[in-house]
Amino acid sequence: MRKLKNSELDRLNIDEFKSAKKTPLIIILDNIRSLNNIGSVFRTSDAFLVDKIYLCGITATPPHNDIRKTALGSTETVDWEYVENTAELVKKLQTEGIKVISIEQAENATLLHNFTPQHNSTYALVFGNEVKGVTQDVVDASDVVIEIPQYGTKHSLNISVSCGVVVWDVFSKMRTNN
């Protein structure tokens, strides 16, 4: 096998990305501290044509060198908006018919592999603070809570890793269901 050169990957340019049909997924970052995590979420969102990212609470916004370092230009492609209050955003999105899913360890959470997205639905995935997770008021307001099964000694995954795992899983299921 020969590694492909970047020029052989047939990637979209910025204008093509902006006009491309987006995956009906929205990412909500609820009080993320790490600028590198924020940049990584932008990069993942670019890879899977995520419709939009909402940066909430203490979550920093572009432009910032530490976000840029991991985002690798994806802050220029993925639409984003800053909203101070995550719970208010969740309620607003729900009035627009968007199903809100918190990614958290909670009672009666649906395990990721058991979640099946509904056809023609848009989902907003909420990822929480590196220490405290998704705030309880946002978990309470969510339509669904999804948990990533884990089998080791640690209690959680890094938020950027969680985002990659969940977005890939939901994106794959959406593509299969269409």
CATH top level is Alpha Beta
Low-confidence stretches: none
Helix content: 25-40%
Strand order of the largest sheet: 3-2-1-6-4-7-5
According to CATH, the fold-level topology is Alpha/beta knot
- The appropriate CATH architecture is 3-Layer(aba) Sandwich
Q: What is the distance, rounded to the nearest whole angstrom, between the alpha carbons of the first and last residues?
A: 32 Å
Strand content: 15-25%
What is the overall number of helices?
6
Order of helices and strands: HEHEHEHEEEHEH
Mean pLDDT: 96
Based on the structure, what is the oligomeric state of the protein chains?
Answer: single chain
Largest sheet: 7 strands, parallel
Overview of this protein structure:
This protein is an alpha/beta fold and 178 residues long. The protein has one domain: SPOUT methyltransferase, trefoil knot domain (Alpha/beta knot). 34% of the residues lie in helices and 20% in strands. The protein contains six helices and seven strands, in the order αβαβαβαβββαβα. The protein has a seven-stranded parallel β-sheet with strand order 3-2-1-6-4-7-5. α2 packs parallel to α3. The chain starts with 13 loop residues before the first helix and ends with a helix. The model has no long low-confidence stretch (mean pLDDT 96).
